Amino acid sequence: MHKRNVIQGFFISAALGLGFISTMPAANAMNLIPQKEGEIQTTNLGCVVNAASCIKSSELGFSVTSLSYKDSANTTYAPSRLFIDKGETANNWGSGIEFGKTDLGTNTTQDEYWLRAVAYDAAGKVREKGQLEVGRFKFDFGKIISEITLDLFDIEDAFKTGILELNGSPVSQLLAANGNNGSTSIVLKNVSSFVLQLGNTGPDSVFKITGDGVRLTGLMSSQSIPEPSTAIAFGLFATVGTLGLKKRQHA
Ligand SMILES: [Ca+2]
Ligand SMILES: [Ca+2]
Ligand SMILES: [Ca+2]
Ligand SMILES: [Ca+2]
Predict the structure, then answer these.
(1) Can you tell me the distance from the alpha carbon of 170 to that of 99, in angstroms, rounded to the nearest whole number?
(2) Where are the domains of the chain?
């Protein structure tokens, strides 16, 4: 009698525990970027905009470093700046960087916030008034993120935009062209850092004089470490399973 009550108790606890697990989302996805306009403060370039519009690592939850890159003719470009931009507002950020309501070639949905690179030439002069969305950036989270989904908009040069380094190791995950205003998503699992090439410029671009601008947004999950209460519920379930098996063997 006493033993049966103990077993019933385990079943009740396990049922509650299982209910708790089933209502828990697998991962809490949140926007990769804050929903506001401004410049991302990179570790190497800082911000060119005023302090109020400078978005720091502490707010982002990760750091960004801007890297120089070469084109197919071996010209080296100065590191790009990185902004968060919404299309429906025109912005004049100073230092030669102006975003219109409409871009010459890369137009995301007007009320959405997207990361937008600002390309510089080899001498460090801003290109296309800041409207050429080409750059290479390292994103460093300082911890493992279980899943990051990156959405890349308007890839028109094939196999030039993509992931060049993942968790410190070189990779080459370059993406096919998806046409004017096309969108491509890639999912990265268990990520602590990645290097991303956004867009392309140079003689091999379909846009010979300027280049192929690409914008970025995404979602990232919360960390993959289980909550302590979930771990306890799993433990109870394992215990009930063992008791149930013993009971059946004796019956
Ligand atoms: Ca804007
Ligand atoms: Ca386009
Ligand atoms: Ca553009
Ligand atoms: Ca493009």
Answers:
(1) 33
(2) 2-25+231-250, 30-220
